[in-house]
Design goal:
alpha/beta, Chemotaxis Receptor Methyltransferase Cher, domain 1, Rossmann fold, 7-stranded mixed sheet, 3-stranded antiparallel sheet, 10 strands, 43% helix, globular, binds S-adenosylmethionine
Length: 275
């Protein structure tokens, strides 16, 4: 089966409207393969029948969800883009802890948006436990969100193979408990993390995310176009506490699409902060 140019255009518009993800012609082969699989699973005749079903018979959103699970790119591993994480561990987190220690507030909220199978969220949990020995006495939560339900299930399992954990510094290996198939994140470390399904392109869901000190959204917005990227980043701004930080992937920049954030350098890495 091969999508015609018209079918591809209809499909990519439906995906864009719901998820904010942009699929241009270069992604035609990829989308073709994924949709082909879905058409076979559903026992449908052809792509037109599928598009009709997706466009007009999906009031529950179940089919769009099934498609979202298929078309998202989920590449991830622990301690990805290590230098930026060092900025978080050595500068931003200690700065926040020192400021909170001058008050009675003992709460820290971190949002890992587009967490895929959870490696990034557990990386942040390891850093929190390592950098801040008193973390057990504070109310600290890492909320890890993604649109892809299959990835969220893997994230909840918290069991990873060699490929996922190869970047974990050996001094942190106590956070990984060997199992028959790989490594489980130590339950005490994992207890900092909660998974939730969230579509970054859904304004209502985004508005409910409030009072975060740090937002990590790395290697996610590269799949969005400027307009949906701007919407997401503006919502992140609203979700952050004053002096909160937004961490994007190293190939991602929002300077071109919004001036809301102040750019700050930590350990040579650019971070966005809310004044
Ligand atoms: C390449 S992974 C990045 C994982 C991790 N942040 C990292 O840097 O290793 C991108 C993730 O973004 C998620 N994603 C894409 N579009 C999304 C949307 N509209 N809402 C929520 N998550 C989305 C995908 O499901 C995927 O798991």
């Amino acid at each position: 089966m091969e999508l015609t140019a018209e079918q591809f255009s209809k499909l990519s518009k439906l995906i864009y409207r719901k998820l904010g993800l942009q699929f241009d012609e270069k992604k035609m082969y990829f989308l073709n393969k994924r949709v082909e699989r879905r058409i076979t699973e559903l026992g449908l005749k052809d792509a037109d029948e599928y598009l009709f079903q997706l466009g007009y018979c999906d009031s529950s959103g179940d089919e769009m969800q099934a498609l979202a699970n298929l078309v998202t790119t989920n590449e991830t591993y622990m301690f990805r883009e290590f230098e930026q994480l060092a900025g978080f561990a050595d500068v931003c987190l200690p700065e926040l802890i020192a400021a909170r220690q001058k008050t009675t507030e003992r709460r820290i909220r971190i949002w890992c948006a587009g967490c895929s199978s959870g490696e990034e969220a557990y990386t942040l949990a390891i850093i929190v436990r390592e950098v801040f020995p008193d973390s057990r006495n504070w109310d600290i939560r890492i909320t890890a969100t993604d649109i892809d339900e299959n990835m969220l299930e893997l994230a909840r399992n918290a069991v990873y193979g060699d490929r996922s954990v190869k970047g974990v510094p050996s001094v942190y290996s106590k956070h990984l408990v060997p199992t028959v198939t790989g490594f489980r994140i130590h339950p005490e470390t994992a207890s900092l993390v909660r998974m939730e399904k969230l579509n970054l392109n859904d304004q209502q869901q985004m508005k409910a995310m409030r009072s975060y000190d740090f937002i990590f959204c790395r290697n996610v917005l590269i799949y969005f176009d400027d307009e949906s990227r701007r919407n997401v980043v503006n919502r992140f701004y609203d979700s952050l506490n004053p002096k909160g930080y937004l961490f994007l992937g190293h190939s991602e920049s929002v300077g071109r699409i919004t001036s809301a954030f102040r750019l700050k350098k930590a350990q040579g890495h650019l971070l966005y902060t809310k004044d």
